[in-house]
Amino acid sequence: MAAQGRHGGRKSNKMTALVVDDNIVNRAIHLRLLDNLSIENEAVGNGKEAVDIHCSGKTFDLILMDMDMPIMNGIEATRKLREMGIRSMIAGVSTRSMEQDVREFIEAGLDDYQEKPLTMSKLISIIHKINGNG
Amino acid sequence: MDVVNQLQRQFIDNSASLHREGFLDDQFTQLQKLQDENSPDFVVEVASLFFEDCEKLINNMSRALEQQQGVDFKQVDASVHQLKGSSSSIGAVRVKNICVAFRSFCEAQNREGCLRCLQQVTHEYSLLKNKLQTLFRLEKQILAAGGSIPGVE
């Protein structure tokens, strides 16, 4: 799937992903998972930074969105990105398991939801959905 | 039994004990599988981030619970939630399980319960850190002796 590269305006055949998580441990693990699949990646620390990076013109094939974050949480960020017309695959990744919490997150505009911890098999299942839609 | 074999045996025993005693679960094994020649220090790096994160969060919880004017349990809970997330992601199951109980005490605004959990989480974190640092030291010794790290099952 062709996508805008990390440096903006440059088409690349490599899949690109944005990790949105305020936790440094989770960010490191998610980035490593993406590296292992040769997916170009960047990370930001909250929902507002995710929105800002899109306002700067960057887009990604996949966004791994945490739910609980300071400044702007994953639900608000997902809603905002969809309002902006962002059609990237957004996969919610959270420790929340309560149906009501997850439903609100999904209804904000997620394409998929995986409970943390994110593993390689969960990430592959998310990517298969992108390729299935591509 | 030569030095490398001895060290490898110690590594396997330490690793097995960490899992058997419930310090780590399969998530840690998943992280070990992510380590390769492109990222040979990945597990040590993630563990270091976890230690750094734990210490920061434990300090935050401690300061919040010391407030005589009134404990902000939401603030404590926010730190516990973060710690639960990190510990789950690295496979630190004992730390994670204490966080589950800790969150219940935060929700109940039970300061004594929170203080007990803080003590437990500090203790479990220290134990885990020591054991992981021993494991990582063994890894270094094996590599320095020209051996390879026993495979992750």
Automatic annotation (TrEMBL), chain A:
Residues with 4-aspartylphosphate modification: 66
Protein name: Response regulator 24
Organism expressing this protein natively: Hibiscus trionum
Gene3D superfamilies for this protein: 3.40.50.2300
Keyword Phosphoprotein among record annotations: yes
Phosphoprotein keyword on record: yes
Family annotation (InterPro entries): CheY-like_superfamily (IPR011006), Sig_transdc_resp-reg_receiver (IPR001789), ST_Response_Regulator (IPR052048)
Stored SUPFAM superfamilies: CheY-like (SSF52172)
A GO biological process held by the record: phosphorelay signal transduction system
Keywords associated with the record: Phosphoprotein
Xref: CDD domains: REC_hyHK_CKI1_RcsC-like (cd17546)
Domain Response regulatory: 16-131
TrEMBL record, chain B:
Modified residues (Phosphohistidine): 81
One GO location term (cellular component): cytosol
Gene3D superfamilies recorded: HPT domain (1.20.120.160)
Keywords annotated in UniProt: Acetylation, Cytokinin signaling pathway, Cytoplasm, Nucleus, Phosphoprotein, Two-component regulatory system
Subcellular compartments: Cytoplasm, Cytosol; Nucleus
GO biological-process terms attached to the record: cytokinin-activated signaling pathway; phosphorelay signal transduction system
Domain HPt residue range list: 39-145
Record-linked InterPro entries: AHP1-5/YPD1, HPT_dom_sf, Sig_transdc_His_kin_Hpt_dom
GO terms assigned for molecular function: histidine phosphotransfer kinase activity; protein histidine kinase binding
Function, as annotated: Functions as a two-component phosphorelay mediators between cytokinin sensor histidine kinases and response regulators (B-type ARRs). Plays an important role in propagating cytokinin signal transduction.
Swiss-Prot/TrEMBL domain comment: Histidine-containing phosphotransfer domain (HPt) contains an active histidine that mediates the phosphotransfer.
Name of the protein in question: Histidine-containing phosphotransfer protein
